[in-house]
Amino acid sequence: MMYTNLIIAAALLPGSFAQETVYGVYIFHRHGDRTPKSTPPANLTDLGYSQVYTRGEYYRSRYVTGDASLKVKGLNTDLVKQSQIAVTAPKDTVLQNSALGFLQGLYPPVGRRVETLRNGSQVAAPFNGYQLIPINLVSSGTGSEDNGWLQDASGCENAKISSNNYFTSKEYTDKLASTRDLYDKLVPVVNGTFAAKDVTFKNAYTIYDVINVAEIHNATIPSDSVLDSATLHQARTLADSHEYGLAYNATDNIRAMPGMQLAAEIVKFLSNTVASKGASKLGIQFGAYASFLSFFGLSNLTAASPDFYGVPDYASSMVFELFSNGAAASEFPSADDLQIRFLFHNGSAASSADPTPFALFGGNDMSIPWNRFSEKMEKFAIGTAEQWCNACGNSTGTCAGYGESGTSSSQSAPSHHNRHGISAAVGGVIGAMVTLAVLLGLGSLVILVGGMRLVSKKRLVDAGEYCQGLKERER
């Protein structure tokens, strides 16, 4: 998808940046070029690594270096200070490796250092003075790049149900029927990956993904005469339409759960920047296109440009800059004096290295007050396990501790009450007690007969994992 460059007001020209002070930045970044989803495991390619490394270098020149165009106040220039930066990615090889490549461009080696030990021997740092920045795991988006269906990585039952409703919508059924000729034409191009019966609009994105990877990497493509510019464009726009329909729906926004979680993470990091008076400076998260698309819908970026209905290209990034007008003061400004600017860069498809500002929430202003931004985001943000469990309707695993009568989420999610008056959590407790009684009886019998000894073991539970043990819903 080619994002239209807006004509930016004079206030956003580089010379005017000297009249601003940036205190914090949050970057949400897509991975670089990879192998196709249809042949898992997907892997980051050399091209993909180069793409994210180059973007890391760009953001270094924008925010980090001493002469950066928008230097973040107090951010270390050469030697990384771990307390100033927070980096996250889901448990996904492509996304984690993309984050590593980006960070190597953001904070490159600082020169070969030599450490003298007590015994007089010397040890030289490898890689010409490497710098290591930890990447923390987030639960949302796990295994994104090995899943062909957008909601496979969400774990949210209501989001899956909502996305599946797209397959019964008039929009979907009309496109399924009207595009049969196009996909019949594409069969000989992709029949090494898909059976002919599966080459339909139902698999629009994974079909396009195979073709796109081939167009980038393959010396030869079967029946490539079919792939003229008009056909490629149509396949791409159909893939965009298909994935946006699965990622966001204005009347049933629970399917936009990845964007809701992302919104909470953005607000949490930048709120900490404000609360800590600028100690927390740079937040970076790598994630899948599902989070981009659902956030585009939730924040009404589609009103700023219709291009936001499409899947962003490899190595794309959304940026949120927290700044105040005027030169830096000795005191950290009050929340009332802080502004947020949103920018987007469409990865390798962009004509310029610079990200482009866009107006959020259907407005016209390229920057908005911090307090209004956080208020708008909180309307759809999902930031706690309890909110997530209630919104998603999940009731097992980590969610077993949150009954349906608990705190509701901050957005309108479908309600699923048990018809017999027993909540899922209570029912789970009753079932667990019955099962425990049976197991204890059997265990006693085994001990009496076999002379075995019981050993107690604590069960470790990761509260940050959102019910990943659930079976994936049949599509």
Automatic annotation (TrEMBL):
It comes from the Eukaryota. Keywords: Membrane, Signal, Transmembrane, Transmembrane helix. GO terms for molecular function: phosphatase activity. Gene3D superfamilies: Phosphoglycerate mutase-like. Residues 1-18 form the signal peptide. This is Phosphoglycerate mutase-like protein. InterPro entries: His_Pase_clade-2 (IPR000560), His_PPase_superfam (IPR029033), Histidine_acid_phosphatase (IPR050645). The chain crosses the membrane at residues 424-449. Belongs to the histidine acid phosphatase family. Coiled coil: none annotated. It holds the Pfam family His_Phos_2.
